[in-house]
Amino acid sequence: MTTVTRQAPAGRAAVIAGIGSYVPPDVVTNQDLTRRLDTSDEWIRSRTGIATRHVVSAGTATSDLAVEAGQRALKSAGSADVDAVVLATTTPDHSCPATAPAVAARLGLTGVPAFDVAAVCTGFLYGLASASGLIAAGIADRVLLVAADAFTTIINPDDRTTAVIFADGAGAVVLRAGRPDEPGAIGPLVLGSDGSLGNLIEVPAGGSRQRSSGRSAPLEDHYFQMRGRDTYRHAVERMTAASLEAVERRGWTMADIDRFAAHQANARILTAVSDRLEVPVERQLSNIEHVGNTGGASIPLLLSQAAQDGRLTAGQKVLLTAFGGGLAWGATALHWPVLTPF
Ligand code: UT7
């Protein structure tokens, strides 16, 4: 097991200065899914908490979602001036090159460093670590961090265990250099991984392992595959432990937490984690019913929507946690800053 806990060096921290999100307009209902899969609205609602989800239309790529969310975060920050772009995604436009440079160019940011972070559903938290590092090291003063996934593009449309859960969306934050004691300052971040369980969540084919073998792979191996039951168990354990550690490292207790924003993996996972952490239902943020599991985009999409509809307000103590393929997990706690979300 590898768990890394770091606090930004005293004096210079990454501070959230803007937030925005985007979901594509097309909506798929549970009823729509029952027309082509052996499933039911009742099964999907009771096992996952999902009723509807947004999906990309033909020809739409992750960068299209990322650009929309990025524009909104820059507008929220009140300035398009950033000196690095980090994109967390599991569904890059191409397997080579990274998608972040294309996003940066389309946002008028040609020339700034831009790179992708691959941490599946924990991508936003790993992206926060990358962006905070750039700021703490003095490499950048303002970073645009986008988490975007066109997850349905890697889902097997005939696999009812994943097709009912995963969906598409994007969320973004602008981070600026500031002080660790300011509202919106990131840190401490708790991050971990366990690659010995990498096969719980994977796309088996299409990478160097399969391509170097010279053997073709069955079509289903080019799609996302998940061992749901085992993943569920690890998700609950890891998000609970990471959350407790993040809160403790921050010097808070769980009773201090005003809002809990966990990766929207499955409503039952969220309930199980919240029960273990004893987070009352009115402090839990959730949007899974209407957006499904949007992979790495999940947390910033949730934060942006909750800030827009007033469930999340300045001054609240917020706990974030995520878990997903890798395996990779993480958590952090922060004071929500004064922001105009888009
Ligand atoms: O975001 C990254 C991390 N991802 C997660 O954390 C997701 C974790 N896992 C899950 O959310 C859940 O495990 C699932 C929602 C994927 C599955 O729920 P479950 O309660 O664990 O169901 P199960 O896999 O144990 O399957 C129970 C039954 C099976 O039938 P039998 O063997 O009992 O006859 C499945 O074949 O439900 C069946 N089933 C379905 N039935 C109707 C599986 N998917 C469906 C479906 N509709 N869509």
UniProtKB/TrEMBL annotation:
Residues 115-195 form the Beta-ketoacyl-[acyl-carrier-protein] synthase III N-terminal domain. Gene3D superfamilies: 3.40.47.10. Its EC number is 2.3.1.180. Residues 264-268 are annotated as: ACP-binding. Catalyzes the condensation reaction of fatty acid synthesis by the addition to an acyl acceptor of two carbons from malonyl-ACP. Catalyzes the first condensation reaction which initiates fatty acid synthesis and may therefore play a role in governing the total rate of fatty acid production. Possesses both acetoacetyl-ACP synthase and acetyl transacylase activities. Its substrate specificity determines the biosynthesis of branched-chain and/or straight-chain of fatty acids. GO terms for biological process: fatty acid biosynthetic process; secondary metabolite biosynthetic process. The active site is at 121, 263, 293. It comes from Streptomyces caelestis. Homodimer. The last Arg residue of the ACP-binding site is essential for the weak association between ACP/AcpP and FabH. This is Beta-ketoacyl-[acyl-carrier-protein] synthase III. It catalyses: malonyl-[ACP] + acetyl-CoA + H(+) = 3-oxobutanoyl-[ACP] + CO2 + CoA. GO terms for molecular function: 3-oxoacyl-[acyl-carrier-protein] synthase activity; beta-ketoacyl-acyl-carrier-protein synthase III activity. Residues 248-336 form the Beta-ketoacyl-[acyl-carrier-protein] synthase III C-terminal domain. One of its GO terms (cellular component) is cytoplasm. Keywords: Acyltransferase, Cytoplasm, Fatty acid biosynthesis, Fatty acid metabolism, Lipid biosynthesis, Lipid metabolism, Multifunctional enzyme, Transferase. CDD domains: KAS_III. Pathway: Lipid metabolism; fatty acid biosynthesis. It is found in: Cytoplasm. Pfam families: ACP_syn_III, ACP_syn_III_C. InterPro entries: ACP_syn_III_C, ACP_syn_III_N, FabH, Thiolase-like. Belongs to the thiolase-like superfamily. FabH family.
